[in-house]
């Protein structure tokens, strides 16, 4: 009898998973316990330890202390920075604290689901861009000339080199991490990102990381060879996921939530941006171009009135693919954008390019247009191509409340698709 009951349970579980196979997946809501969707209301603890200058030897940060990042803090000299689960590191708003793991050094920050590591702001009124963010630099390939780059911003140029030949290198572990209110603006330059990973190799672990209210991008990957899963970008000002400089990235089971009123609606601000390069003049086209293979992503705008916000010009595209870059996106949800996908105007719509830009088993929901070429009002060729039944893409105009399990739950939102809700036809 026990064996029969167990078999029934397994079959039911398999059925549930099959119906939820698009977008973020899991038998349980994997956002529970370690995420925080209202970090403004979380009081900052008082720091009792200062992190400043250069960390030149192996160092451990412990949960019993609260650390404050003052100014630009560099981990150098191949040192390893280890951070215990539950440790709180505060980016000083006054000095715009930033943590930089230099090339050859490592960060071992392995939090736990019930005890995440938290990077946040010490401002009394927390907001995007209060402090710098976390920068991880490695020695994996990039496609700039010489195979090397420098993440300068206003940092020390002698400590910000990245890139090399070791695709299988490790810059450490980032797991069950929250990064809040980072992304400070640099005068005369761009903004920092919540998490910048430049030239990191595929032995680097990037799992269960939440970046919320970033003043720049949430996640920015420059070159390198990366595997990443269960990443969460929440109401970033700029891009949620940015891939450039020849990154070879495999992204799985990850979430981006944008807001019509907080996320920027300017050109160049998207959920997912895939580019071959930042500056064409610095790019070595004999090296690998950017390749992104992503599956089970949920990219959504959480507005309760998507149509009105689109009409007001508050919402633009969710995904942007630039010329010469490759994106394979499968079993993912794009909900509430205008349009869902925009291809660079330099991308010629032909068989060769369409082989590099794949959308399969997708769920396009509440989007004004699905796949367009930039500055081209006629997208019939792309709609016909990706609307072919062989790609198994689904199109719908379903309200957020009906589409997702419980996205407006203030404490524990659930962004998985509701079981059985993917019932729209595969026609456009």
Automatic annotation (TrEMBL):
Q: Does the keyword Signal apply?
A: yes
Q: Which UniProt keywords apply?
A: Signal
Report which superkingdom the organism of origin falls in: Bacteria
The residue range of the signal peptide is: 1-18
Protein name, UniProt field = T9SS C-terminal target domain-containing protein
Q: Which organism is it from?
A: Flavobacterium humidisoli
């Amino acid at each position: 009898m026990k064996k029969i009951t167990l078999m029934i349970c397994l079959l039911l579980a398999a059925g549930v998973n099959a119906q939820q196979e698009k977008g973020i997946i899991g038998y349980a809501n994997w956002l529970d316990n370690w995420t925080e969707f209202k970090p403004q209301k979380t009081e900052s603890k008082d720091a009792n330890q200062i992190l400043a200058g250069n960390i030149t030897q192996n160092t451990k940060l412990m949960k019993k202390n609260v650390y404050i990042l003052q100014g630009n803090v560099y981990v150098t000299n191949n040192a390893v920075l280890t951070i215990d689960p539950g440790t709180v590191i505060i980016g000083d708003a006054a000095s715009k604290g930033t943590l930089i793991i230099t090339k050859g050094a490592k960060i071992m920050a392995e939090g736990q689901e019930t005890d995440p590591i938290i990077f946040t702001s010490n401002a009394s009124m927390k907001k995007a861009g209060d402090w710098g963010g976390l920068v991880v630099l490695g020695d994996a390939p990039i496609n700039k000339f010489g195979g090397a780059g420098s993440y300068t911003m206003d940092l020390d140029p002698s400590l910000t080199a990245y890139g090399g030949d070791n695709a299988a290198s490790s810059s450490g572990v980032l797991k069950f991490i929250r990064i809040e209110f980072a992304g400070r603006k640099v005068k005369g330059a761009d903004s920092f990102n919540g998490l910048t990973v430049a030239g990191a190799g595929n032995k680097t672990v990037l799992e269960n990381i939440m970046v919320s209210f970033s003043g720049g991008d949430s996640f920015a990957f420059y070159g390198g060879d990366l595997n990443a899963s269960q990443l969460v970008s929440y109401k970033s000002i700029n891009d949620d996921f940015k891939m450039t400089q020849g990154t070879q990235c495999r992204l799985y089971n990850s979430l981006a939530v944008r807001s019509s009123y907080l996320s920027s609606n300017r050109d160049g601000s998207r959920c997912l941006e895939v580019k071959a390069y930042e500056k064409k003049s610095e790019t070595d086209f004999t090296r690998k171009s950017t390749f992104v293979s992503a599956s089970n992503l949920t990219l959504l705008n959480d507005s309760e009135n998507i149509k009105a916000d689109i009409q007001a010009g508050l919402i633009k595209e969710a995904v942007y693919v630039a010329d010469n870059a490759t994106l394979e996106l499968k079993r993912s949800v794009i909900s509430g954008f205008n349009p869902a996908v925009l291809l660079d105007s330099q991308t010629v719509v032909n068989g060769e390019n369409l082989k590099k830009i794949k959308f399969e088993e997708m769920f396009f929901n509440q989007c004004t247009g699905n796949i367009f070429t930039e500055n081209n009002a006629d997208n019939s060729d792309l709609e016909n191509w990706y609307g072919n039944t062989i790609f198994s893409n689904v199109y719908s105009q379903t309200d957020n409340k009906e589409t997702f399990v419980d996205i407006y739950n203030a404490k524990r939102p659930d962004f998985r698709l509701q079981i059985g809700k993917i019932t729209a036809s595969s026609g456009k």
